[in-house]
């Protein structure tokens, strides 16, 4: 069920595209869509969100098709959800609740499960108020209350609130610990001079397929929304002098609940520390410009908009129009591998930062430099010989100046004016 009310923000209104996406979400959650209902009206109904006649229409449709669930494309308030559930005699979910249900099914790692649980509790807390609202109003008004509802209702509500707030605090503490571990791992990566690329994009754009194509991994890559929830990181050798870490991330989607973004920051904060974002775009989808806008907006919200972005237009083999071109974009087919060589070349030009592969011969009197190389360079091999220590390493420009004198036969290039 979707509502397009003139008083709603245009991005919150339902349309054919968002309803098709909702249908895909229902199927991803394991359900089957038997009917799609839309309504246009000036404003949402304050009690039941949609009009009384539309509620009756949905009820008849549900009875005729043996439905046990009604899903709304829009976010509805707890009292509206309760009123709809009472009127329809069925369980009612909104888009946020459905996405959370999918996330709960998909999360595999402890971190992913923590994030989902935290988001679910944050989703439940205001709805808890809605569930007990009738008792709160009765006791707060000072008017007559049915026997057994004065006091205990309020007490039960506050007890439940306290319990959920304690759970939220505990989960946030556990996620803070996860962030601490991630921070330690990140420092180790920086020490080892290993660049990081984060793969981002709209859900179902082909991010996992691309990661499999580049790294030879076997990450599940199915044609369904939110197939990847837990971050997957792999090593990727770009060329002889450059090896990077590449991470897959959860797919973005329109109308993603705010508390869900908050809960997933422990995963998505990696975007802020990445050296480059690989933004995968399904160019075969007619809605790709809007999907790009949504992803860009979420990247800004996560404060990762200063990170270089390489736009990767995927599924180009299914696109018949004029393909995009430019320095910061590449067209590929992750399934066939077409265009991946150019992708690696562009990644190399962004991440290389002047590194070079060299061979050194260190005299034993300068052996102290070996410790510096181990800390600040990528040492590929070390061999102790009669003449000294033979080292093969990948070094950054700032270190190259310190050790170039130990490269056999190396001579500084002269400038034209020095001749």
Instruction: State mean pLDDT (0 to 100 scale).
Output: 80
Strand order, sheet with most strands: 6-7-5-8-9-10
Beta-strand content bin: 15-25%
- Series of secondary-structure elements, N-terminal to C-terminal: EHEHEHEHHHEHEEHHHEHEEHEHEEH
- Separation, N- and C-terminal Cα atoms: 79 Å
Rounded to the nearest angstrom, the radius of gyration is: 28 Å
Structural class: alpha/beta
Q: What is the number of beta strands? A: 13
Count of DSSP H/I helices: 14
Main β sheet profile: 6 strands, mixed
Which shape, going by the Cα principal axes? elongated
Low-confidence stretches: 132-153, 415-419
The percent of residues in helical segments reads: 40-55%
Detailed description of the structure:
The protein has 419 residues and is α/β, with parallel strands linked by helices. The protein is built from 14 helices and 13 strands. The strands form 4 sheets. The protein has a 6-stranded mixed sheet with strand order 6-7-5-8-9-10, sandwiched between helices. Strand 3, helix 3 (78-88) and strand 4 (91-94) form a beta-alpha-beta unit. 30% of the residues are buried.
Short description:
By secondary structure, this protein is α/β, with parallel strands linked by helices. The protein is built from 14 helices and 13 strands. α4 runs antiparallel to α5 (about 110-140) and α5 runs antiparallel to α6 (about 150-190).
